[in-house]
Amino acid sequence: MNLKQYVKQHREDWKELEQLVSLLHKNKRNFAAKDIQQFHRLYQKSAQHLSYCQTYFPKEDVTFYLNGLVSKAHNLLYKDQVSSFKQIRYFFTTKFIGLLAEQWKFVFIAMILFTLGAVGSFFSVLQDPLHLYSILPAEIAYAVDPEQLGVGHDSIDSSLMSASIMTNNIQVAFLAFAGGITFGLLTAYVLVYNGIIVGALAALFWHYDMTYEFWAYIVPHGMIELVAIFIAGGAGLLMGYKLFVPGPYSRIYQLKEQAKRSVQLLLGTIPLFVIAGVIEGFITPAAISLEAKYFVAILTVVGLLLYMVIGTILFQKEARVTRDS
Questions:
Q1: In sequence order, which ranges of 79-137 are alpha helices (DSSP H)?
Q2: Residue 266 in contact with residue 236, Cβ under 8 Å?
Q3: Best exposed site among 111, 135, 142, 300 by fewest CB in 10 Å?
Q4: Is the pTM of this model over 0.90?
Q5: So what's the pLDDT on residue 80?
Q6: Are 314 and 93 in contact (CB under 8 A)?
Q7: Which residues make Cβ contacts (< 8 Å) with residue 143, sequence separation at least 6?
């Protein structure tokens, strides 16, 4: 049986289970016994369907859809209602990492687009420093002065700067995410454009023989910041791809389903932007050695790797529990 036939044969059961899940969430006490029985029957059938799809259609949207539906039904059947704190902890320790594991290819593509912009502008300005004024916005091109790097940081209001940076970065991430509705074209533009800015500035400091100093002021916050932007960009590219290639589903359905997943990816980046903003506001301008700034960058990378590893272990553990139940 092909995918289209399988979905057509069972989608009414899935739709009914989804409605029962929604009703049970809203009003548990007034749920009739016959509804509970029907809920349990549909849950068991959908769990079997999920197992079948994981075997024969492992990378199709229907498998991800069923995994989410069965997980929701399982939680209602076998778990007590958890507190908001536990839900938040579950999202950031397990759910978010699971979404990343499923959509890592789009995050990787986002990184490639950013890198292409950065490499292109770097070699352009390296060839002729005057290209800087045609590549960068005027307010950046005329304001940057490598010889003034680190000067005047003592007078900076770190709290205000940190809040401003966080707001700006989240806006960039949201724009990259929302660009998915343009079939990913705006998302690609945002990623390439931000890469161009970084690449052009890196080339300018190269001309002044200040590459070491430049990256010391970029990498402490930049490692986390770029990862967050790549994730947000990947969320936008995912939505754009599903709109461009909807498969057996309508584009409206894909927009609805992929928007949910993409929004979750975007929400998962907010703590990363908060951490990056705090580092950029308080540590980057601090009167500490360049080596100390690089050490902070190393700590952020180690922290990110540990977060990903631990989250992956928790996600795989939950997947096994769901599959065996």
A1: 84-90, 96-127, 132-135
A2: no
A3: 142
A4: no
A5: 45
A6: yes
A7: none
Identify whether the C-beta of residue 280 lies closer than 8 Å to the C-beta of residue 221: yes
Cα separation, 280 vs 283, whole angstroms: 6
Tokens, residue 297: 């960058």
Q: Which residues of 175-186 are buried (b: 16+ CB within 10 A; e: fewer)?
A: bbbbbbbebbeb
**What digits encode the pLDDT tens for the residues 85-140?**
777 888 888 888 888 888 889 999 999 999 999 999 999 999 988 888 888 888 77
Give the whole-angstrom CA distance, residue 208 versus residue 205. Answer: 5
* Low-confidence residues of the chain: pLDDT under 70: 1, 26-34, 77-84, 150-166, 319, 321-325
Per DSSP, the chain holds a count of helices (H) and strands (E) of 13, 0
- Asked if residue 236 lies in contact with residue 177, where contact means CB atoms within 8 angstroms, the answer is yes
The residue ranges of DSSP E strands in the chain, in sequence order, are none
Alpha helices, DSSP H, located in 27-60: 33-56
Give the closest residue to 213 by CA, choosing from 153, 293, 143, 129.
293
Q: Which two tokens stand for residue 149?
A: 């790097």
The C-alpha atoms of residue 254 and residue 70 are separated, in whole angstroms, by 19
* CA 297 – CA 300 distance, rounded (Å): 5
Using CA atoms, how far apart are residues 281 and 160, in angstroms rounded to an integer? 8
DSSP per residue, 293-309: HHHHHHHHHHHHHHHHH
* Tokens linked to 99: 């979404």
Give the closest residue to 234 by CA, choosing from 253, 214, 258.
258
**Which DSSP letter does residue 94 get?**
I
